[in-house]
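## Example pair
The file below holds two records. Each record gives the amino-acid sequence first, followed by its structure token line.
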Amino acid sequence: MREPFTQHAAEPSGWITTFESFADFLSDWGEVVTEAERRGWGIIGLCC
């Protein structure tokens, strides 16, 4: 996943600038989704 991230998603001015921060984000988001599922909660995405 590192190469596609570097090619398509890495933006020096964005809030995720490295593959490592992207991987951390995915891991943390996985914990959120897993916990929500365990509790029977839903998840929505809102654009700010």
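Second record, same layout:
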Amino acid sequence: MNLHPLPHRKFINNLRSIANITDNLSNACAPATSVSDWVSEEKILEIARLPSTYVSDLGSWELRKTIADLYIRRPSHPIDPEDVIVFTGAQEAIFALQISLLGPHDEVLVVTPTYGSMMSFLLSLKIKIIEVPLSQENSWKINVSKIEQSLTPRTKLISINFPNNPIGVDLTPEDKGELAKLSEKYNIPILSDEVGLWTKSQTDLGNWKGDALSSYSDKVISLGVTSKSFGLPGIRLGWLIVRDQGIREKILSVKTHLSICSSQIDDFLAVEIFKRADEILVHHNQMIEENKTKFALFCKKHSHLFRYQKVDTGVTGIVEFVSSLDVKEFSHSLAMKNQLLMIPSEFFYLPGNFFRIGFGAKNFSEMLEKLEDFILKTS
């Protein structure tokens, strides 16, 4: 099997081979912090005493319980620790799910735009992809009726990504209810990529938990990760919420051929950090909200080049480039002259003159200064 490269990673690597890029204005992670910001010195020292043994293939019970506690608990479909399977990052989880459920003649319906892994693995497996794109004319809102109309007898999986990467828009509770009914009506599982689920404006200590689509139906599988909303890409953990026992067994069979289990140290650190998830999210989401406001003001100032509509959810957003210059040419020139990376949205299966913008960087203001310097020098 020839694995297709992730489009945006290929683009970044090609640029880095010719440009000394120092800043990334398209980074999709929340503000990066250090372990010592959230874990006590006593607990950090405890790492030295951890046994160098395997963790459970599923992830430790304590970690799975801590992950389940990140979600709103709905009485009809509560998320429990036994529903959680831990992986070494989200991409392993995506790969394990897709390879366990799909065969050569199957079809997958993918709502686009989406993260590259959702598509590249399917292309590598030679699975037929039916795209249902979000449209700017419909304010990038999901159209469940259009999804239903696009299903065929060969559709074996529906793949969605909300809060959407790169756009940032999220599902409403009504959308979630309709998707859950659709999944159950046609007996087709939904893979719901929710890695940015906890990023929303007006987050406080009382409303930070995530409303997972998997808490609306047992047919839905939710994907989470430490990197995006939590800003912890150095802790290599992702997870799936899976209730269907048959699907769980298939996924675990594939996982035993991959990482088998995650690291003891990552497992331990994630438990300790997630105990303070409320504080982390309030901190991160306040900074992300401030950066979105800064960017809106920047685009207003440079409206001859950029058109931006602020979205209250998600770590990322898109900006429309209203120039005659090609977005890839602009990105290439910006990287070469000002060492700043901006990724065109086409690498996330969104055609048109858009860039993905990441709002989690601590040095966001400095990057906007770099961008402005480039605009002034080249105008």
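Notes on the second record: Residues 277-301 form the longest helix (25 residues). The chain has a mean pLDDT of 95.
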